[in-house]
Specification:
Blueprint lengths: L30 H5 L1 H16 L4 E3 L9 E6 L11 E13 L4 E8 L2 E11 L1 E7 L5 E7 H14 L15 E2 H8 L3
Antiparallel strand pairs: 1-2, 2-3, 3-6, 4-5, 5-8, 6-7
């Protein structure tokens, strides 16, 4: 599969909370659609956009495309400096299944809800079944922060945002106050 040269990639406009695209359930792709040049370009642009904004994940509806595509990567990210690394992953038509009942509450933010953070409960371990960008089947288990990122993006593909999962809004705050009062608490 050929990759679009870096110079040809684009930074896409990120949809913000309130835009209807974020509340729609996204559409699955056929293998033909996935392998098309426009979809491959979209995937490259999503990766570029995620990196540009220091995100660790991005769903297609966050760039105004109602398709079941999500990208994620946790590398040297200034927003999440202490989180374990996760290799660049493209998930197409993902299915996410919790493994066990153990839930952990931790901080989340979102490129579509800029400058806010809140504590969100998520399953600690999930099974993911999806296609990669070439249509090859993937089936793996993600735990802890990796599982959190996948569940966050999967929610996007199902018309939900992290605010919908919060149990207690007393932790919701602006990023500057999060850094000042909560980051090292």
């Amino acid at each position: 599969m050929s990759v679009v040269p870096k110079s040809a990639m684009a930074i896409l406009k990120v949809s913000r909370l309130g835009h209807p695209v974020l509340r729609r359930v996204t559409q699955p792709l056929s293998l033909e659609q996935l392998r098309s040049a426009p979809t491959q370009r979209l995937i490259d642009d999503m990766i570029e956009t995620m990196k540009e904004y220091d995100g660790v994940g991005l769903a297609a509806d966050q760039v105004h495309e109602s398709q079941q595509i999500a990208v994620l990567e946790v590398a040297d990210n200034p927003r999440y400096p202490d989180k374990p690394k996760v290799p660049l992953t493209v998930l197409v038509n993902p299915r996410v299944t919790p493994l066990g009942e153990e839930i952990e509450e931790d901080w989340e933010g979102c490129l579509s809800i800029p400058d806010l953070r809140g504590r969100v409960p998520r399953y600690k371990s999930v099974r993911i079944q999806a296609w990669d960008r070439d249509g090859k089947e993937m089936d793996f288990v993600a735990k802890d922060f990796h599982a959190r990122v996948i569940q966050h993006e999967w929610d996007h593909l199902n018309g939900k945002v992290y605010l919908d999962r919060m149990r207690d809004f007393s932790t919701l705050g602006f990023l500057q106050e999060f850094a000042r009062y909560w980051l090292n608490a």
